[in-house]
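Figure 6 in text form: structure in, sequence out.
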């Protein structure tokens, strides 16, 4: 499969091109025959555990964390590398992309705001694939409006007692530790939330329900019943949890766009292969202008998504604020990937809806990306807020 012409774009550096090429060849060798046929919870759990081990052994998870002293590829997380890895993995396996992303997201708060002891204890295991990470912020009544979360952590001597509920938690049930965001009450709203590391198996942490979804991966609802953890497991200062969560999402939001881009690129590749070989009406499907219009739309959409994704990642790596650019990338890439995959299903005809086919699995894999880490509507609000603010500032400066 062709990795894409974007590797020559100026957003990327030689090390990124080498990384993408090496990973493409590794993934083709190691993961291409790894398609999940059994969607039961135990089979999905096993597949994820195996993928964590494989990605750790392959050396790829060291890009998911920050801090060379703790097993990372560099001291700071390289957003472009994360995007290239997710895009490449997504072209071959949605589950492999998921596994990589969750190792990064679940440990991101430690990489960004953890103490030396926390980094030492958790990050090397995340990088080697010997510990599985999870990020637990959503609750039944706090999804898009995540600052409304109610799960609370009460200080009790040298410990915190966590009580409440979290839901839609990826890796719930198989994670070795959970990054949990809970209300500590320094202030109302977002400034009264702190981040905690809760090890799996801590008394009071219960996997209350396993949730099965259209693109199977481990997902669970968790309950915390006076779950006692040492105060040293708090990440960052009290009341800083929301800020740490947003800083983590600022890196990983662009990478959701990259995963969508990988799915769209695979759909385009499959659509080209099928339409140039499928015979009908005395020629092949790709000879018809109606098909060419679809292929043209898909190819243009893929490049638009890539441009926005790697612009956001590059800006982030340049140390710039990317709230608006990452939102643009996430919104555009996930929405147009859905359309591109739908066009591919159409080009495949009946074959496109057969369970287990690549195109059918892409159709299921893409859908949640338009919802998690901020639904498309939330990204629209972020972008609009950003451009309105920029307009007002420029008007003020002009007097
Ligand atoms: C597969 C999957 C994996 C997930 N993994 C994790 C995880 O690991 N950790 C975690 O903490 N959470 C996780 N989530 C939860 C995810 O972040 C939430 O689903 C998401 O934030 C949306 O929250 P909600 O589902 O409660 O939807 P709601 O907040 O109820 O929103 C429903 C819909 O309302 C619309 N909407 C939202 N805001 C507005 C608005 N202002 N104006 C108009 N319309 C609006 C959007 O279309 C949205 O989809 C996961 C979700 C999925 C689907």
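Output sequence:
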């Amino acid at each position: 499969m062709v990795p894409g012409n974007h590797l020559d774009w100026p957003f990327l550096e030689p090390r990124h091109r080498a990384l993408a090429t090496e990973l493409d060849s590794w993934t083709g060798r190691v993961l291409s025959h790894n398609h999940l046929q059994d969607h039961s919870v135990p089979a999905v759990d096993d597949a994820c555990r195996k993928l964590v081990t494989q990605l750790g052994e392959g050396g790829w998870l060291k890009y998911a964390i920050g801090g060379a002293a703790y097993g990372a590829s560099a001291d700071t997380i390289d957003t472009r590398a994360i995007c290239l890895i997710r895009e490449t993995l997504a072209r071959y396996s949605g589950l492999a992309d998921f596994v990589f992303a969750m190792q990064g997201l679940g440990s991101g708060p430690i990489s960004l705001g953890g103490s030396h002891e926390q980094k030492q204890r958790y990050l090397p295991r995340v990088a080697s694939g010997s510990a599985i990470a999870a990020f637990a912020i959503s609750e039944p009544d706090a999804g898009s409006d995540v600052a409304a979360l109610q799960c609370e952590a009460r200080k009790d001597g040298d410990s915190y007692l966590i009580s409440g509920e979290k839901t839609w938690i990826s890796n719930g049930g198989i994670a070795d530790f959970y990054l949990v965001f809970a209300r500590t009450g320094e202030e109302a709203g977002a400034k009264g939330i702190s981040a905690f590391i809760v090890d799996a198996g801590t008394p009071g942490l219960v996997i209350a329900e396993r949730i099965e979804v259209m693109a199977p991966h481990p997902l669970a609802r968790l309950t915390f019943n006076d779950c006692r953890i040492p105060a040293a497991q708090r990440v960052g200062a009290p009341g800083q949890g929301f800020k740490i969560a947003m800083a983590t999402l600022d890196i990983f939001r662009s990478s959701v766009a990259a995963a969508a881009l990988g799915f769209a690129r695979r759909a385009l590749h499959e659509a080209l292969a099928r339409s140039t070989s499928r015979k009908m009406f005395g020629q092949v499907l790709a000879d018809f202008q109606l098909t060419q219009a679809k292929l043209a739309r898909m190819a243009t959409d893929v490049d638009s998504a890539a441009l926005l994704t790697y612009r956001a990642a590059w800006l982030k790596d340049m140390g710039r604020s990317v709230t608006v650019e990452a939102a643009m990338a996430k919104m555009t890439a996930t929405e147009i990937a859905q359309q591109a995959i739908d066009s591919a299903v159409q080009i495949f005809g009946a074959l496109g809806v057969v369970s287990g086919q690549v195109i059918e699995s892409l159709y299921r894999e893409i859908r949640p990306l338009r919802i998690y880490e901020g639904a498309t509507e939330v990204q629209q609000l972020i972008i609009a807020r950003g451009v309105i603010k920029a307009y007002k500032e420029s008007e003020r400066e002009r007097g």
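Caption detail: The first helix runs from residue 14 to 30.
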